[in-house]
C-alpha cells in the first residue's frame, strides 16, 4: 500500500538539516562612516530586500511542494476510498449471496426431511405389501392344496359311487 511518511513530506516542504539551502551570506555589520551613512543605509536596505526576496522564493517553493504533497495525499486518499467502496460493495454482495445460500440450505434440509419421511412411509407400505403378498401366497398355496385334495377325492370317490349306483337295482 502506498503510504506517506509525514516527516519526509515535511522535509520536502520545509528543508531541514542537510537539505536546508545555505543561509544568505551577509557581510559583517560595520559601523558606517558618517559621510557614507546614506550609502550604508541603502546597502543594508538592499541586502534586507534581497534576503526577503530569497525568503519569499523559498516560501513559494515550500508552498508549491506543500501543494504537490497535498495533491498526492488527496489522490492516494481518493484511490483508498475507491478501494474501500469496492470492498464494501463486494462485502454486501458476498453477504447477499451467503444469505441466499443459507436460505437454499434451509430449503434443501426441509426437502431432504420431507423425502426421508416419504421414503420411510413408502418403505413401511412396501413392507406391509410384502406381508400381504406372503399371506396371499400362503393362502393361495393352501387353496391350491385344498383344490388338489378335492380333485383327488373326486377321482377316488367318483368312480366308486358311479359303480355303486350302477350296481343298485333299478327300482
Give a written overview of the molecule.
The protein is mainly alpha-helical and 171 residues long. The protein contains two helices and no strands. The chain has helices spanning 6-13, 37-167. Helix 1 (6-13) runs antiparallel to helix 2.
Task: Give a concise summary.
The chain is mainly α and 171 residues long.
Radius of gyration: 58 Å
Outline, from the CA principal axes? rod-shaped
Overall pLDDT, averaged? 84
- How large is the share of residues in beta strands? under 5%
Uncertain runs: none
- The secondary structure category is mainly alpha
Q: What is the makeup of the main sheet?
A: none
Number of strands: 0
SSE order: HH
Instruction: Give the number of helices.
Output: 2
Question: Can you give keywords for this protein?
Answer:
171 residues; mainly alpha; 2 helices
Write the layout of secondary structure elements.
Elements lengths: L5 H8 L23 H131 L4
Helix pairs in contact: 1-2
Amino acid at each position: 500500500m502506498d503510504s506517506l511518511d509525514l516527516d519526509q513530506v515535511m522535509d520536502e516542504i520545509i528543508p531541514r538539516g542537510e537539505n536546508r539551502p545555505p543561509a544568505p551570506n551577509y557581510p559583517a555589520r560595520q559601523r558606517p562612516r558618517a559621510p557614507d551613512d546614506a550609502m550604508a543605509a541603502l546597502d543594508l536596505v538592499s541586502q534586507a530586500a534581497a534576503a526577503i526576496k530569497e525568503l519569499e522564493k523559498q516560501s513559494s517553493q515550500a508552498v508549491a511542494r506543500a501543494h504537490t504533497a497535498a495533491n498526492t495525499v488527496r489522490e492516494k486518499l481518493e484511490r483508498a476510498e475507491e478501494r474501500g467502496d469496492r470492498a464494501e460493495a463486494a462485502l454486501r454482495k458476498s453477504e447477499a449471496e451467503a444469505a441466499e445460500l443459507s436460505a437454499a440450505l434451509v430449503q434443501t434440509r426441509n426437502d431432504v426431511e420431507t423425502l426421508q419421511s416419504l421414503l420411510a412411509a413408502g418403505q413401511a407400505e412396501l413392507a406391509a405389501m410384502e406381508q400381504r403378498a406372503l399371506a396371499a401366497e400362503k393362502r393361495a398355496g393352501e387353496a391350491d392344496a385344498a383344490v388338489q385334495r378335492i380333485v383327488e377325492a373326486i377321482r377316488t370317490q367318483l368312480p366308486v359311487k358311479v359303480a355303486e349306483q350302477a350296481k343298485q337295482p333299478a327300482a
